[in-house]
Amino acid sequence: MTLHTTIKTARDFARYCDDLRQAPLIAFDTEFVSEDRFRPQLCLLQVATPESAVVIDPLAVSDVGEFWELVANFNGPVIVHAGREEIRFCYRASGRKVANLFDVQLAAGFIGMDYPASYGNLIHRYLGQVLDKGETRTDWRRRPLTEHQLDYALQDVTHLPSLYELLRERLERRQRLEWLYEEVDELQTAVMQAEAQESWRRVPGGSTLPPRQSAVLRELWRWRENEARQADIPARRVLRDDLLIELAKRGTDDVRRIRSLRGMERRTLGAQYEAIAEAIRRALELPESELPRRVFGERRSQAPLLTQFVGTAIACISRQHHLAPAIVGNAEDVRDLLAYEQSGRKGHELPHLLRGWRGEVIGNRVRELLAGKLAIRIADAGDELPVEFCRVAPDRSLEGP
Q1: Domains and CATH numbers, the chain
Q2: Which of 235, 245, 278, 395 is the most exposed place for a label (fewest CB within 10 A)?
């Protein structure tokens, strides 16, 4: 691999993007700061191919939209580690998914590595190298960056091509490459949906509010988002979540009562009382037909012991198939599966654990457990995988003559 270069001009950036289109693969990572911004601020783009490694300085180049268009349309593999934030950057800039995305963190989980595994752990396990951790608290907005800082940033991508080749070969050997791409596509879809949806229901305490109070919360959330976007600051810095909930519960557009709420006396809110009152007023004036309704999920299992048992069984099945249990599913997925099985399965969407590769490897076996066709026993208490599944013989005593 050649020595890296740092791209700081629009001309060099455009030239590099032209060269990058001819590369057999692209590995990239980002450095960003999100603590005091409405959206994370992109501070560095690190890009590697099999031949070179480059640092792109978005603060100098200003517009790196061409890169996001490139990775959204790239014909070869695009490699990342834990790429949720990279997916967001691409979606916000291009409105599309990253093409042919290969996430090495997910890939490792499909061959038995614990998930989520850090980049350093993956490099050490699969490539036998130890990474420098000396710049983990760097403020990537500050300029100039030292050569050591740039080298540290680049190590996040320089090993990705080699890691990709190794993990891809092992996934192909186990016939799980399509599983990975299925999972990555699902991840990208979830990230894009989250970006497009209003998240006022996720304000702590908001999911249990009655319709009218929910409407107030929604209007206040929208007002706060707009204020935060214009000021480019985190939304909670405009107005705390707990104050949103309390204002929604009080349900009054009386400025004096709004101001009297403890926590609302901050000087920065002085000019906002009327705007807050107007947001509340809009919600109070909504007709009943336009009020948000509480979202009720499917009936949940009332047997926590069964949920724990099935969760343990899924972990065992996962380990036996060299899958990271955290990739397979979580407690919420288990509850969804149990609710689905107990509901009679009519008119319900297939739960996560019964779809795709999960259904083939995990879901069908869990169904047999729930039907009493399989049992779990301790085979060897000293073994790394001490349990085994055994077929239950039919009880002939229950059959007629």
Answers
A1: 5-196 (3.30.420.10), 200-290 (1.10.150.80), 304-398 (1.10.150.80)
A2: 395
